[in-house]
Amino acid sequence: MTTLGIDLGSRKVKFAALRDLEILWLRDFDTIPFYKRYGGLHAGRLTIDFAALELFDPAHPPAAMVATGYGRNTINLEGARIVPEIQAHVAGARFQTGCDTFTLLDLGGQDTKVARVEEGLLQDFLMNDKCAASSGRYLENMAQVLDIGLDELARHADNPVSLDATCGIFGESELIGKIVEGHPLPHLCAGINATLVKRVLPMLRRFPQDVLMVTGGVARNQAFRHLLRQAVEARLLVPENPQHNGAIGCAVLAAARPLEK
């Protein structure tokens, strides 16, 4: 049986297909071009042109489809069961790692989520969806200011320049000032990565520090992981596919209840 999971994120739309609980394939698209090319609204429901996407043979559609994403209450995707983001990300993290007790830190494009899972059950969670200063969007904006890519930004963790602005917009102005002062690019990159760590630490303080599971696109940033590992007592765990974790979780949930769409 094949199931499809969809994570309609603010920066990326991610797909995951599972067959008999094995990952068949993963795909992702930039969100705005995706909606322009493949999205539509009919009778108040979001539709996706799956034929144009060519993700699967139309003669053999997935047995079930589950979706989640940024602003899930407005998704209402036709043909899919909608689940909360936290539920999808916890299911994905458990599936990818086999771990049942952990604290989840998911850094998405525009929000940050922390959840506590014990023996497979969600115990508590916290979301910061009011400000993008502690999300992947912050890294994107700062990389643009430096005129570099995210891969270059992710290489540097040593000798971080101190960046104290708590607002992402003011942070850009502060970074420009540091450039003018003549700080080396690697130190500026390290300062940006260290600032993101500094911003998520307050969200982690109320949760146990045993295993910290890091997901979302920011989890691919090795400098962020290095600095976070230095700042917490927990053992860091990153799933093999951190950016697709929510979509994978959706596909897992679809397999658990295949008859409900």
TrEMBL record:
Gene3D superfamilies: 3.30.420.40. This is Acyl-CoA dehydratase activase. Pfam families: BcrAD_BadFG. PANTHER family: ACTIVATOR OF 2-HYDROXYACYL-COA DEHYDRATASE (PTHR32329:SF5), BIFUNCTIONAL PROTEIN [INCLUDES 2-HYDROXYACYL-COA DEHYDRATASE (N-TER) AND ITS ACTIVATOR DOMAIN (C_TERM)-RELATED (PTHR32329). Residues 4-254 form the ATPase BadF/BadG/BcrA/BcrD type domain. The keyword Metal-binding applies. The keyword Metal-binding applies. SUPFAM superfamilies: Actin-like ATPase domain (SSF53067). InterPro entries: ATPase_BadF (IPR002731), ATPase_NBD (IPR043129), CoA_E_activase_dom (IPR008275), Dehydratase_Activator_Redct (IPR051805). Keywords: Iron, Iron-sulfur, Metal-binding. Its cofactor is [4Fe-4S] cluster.
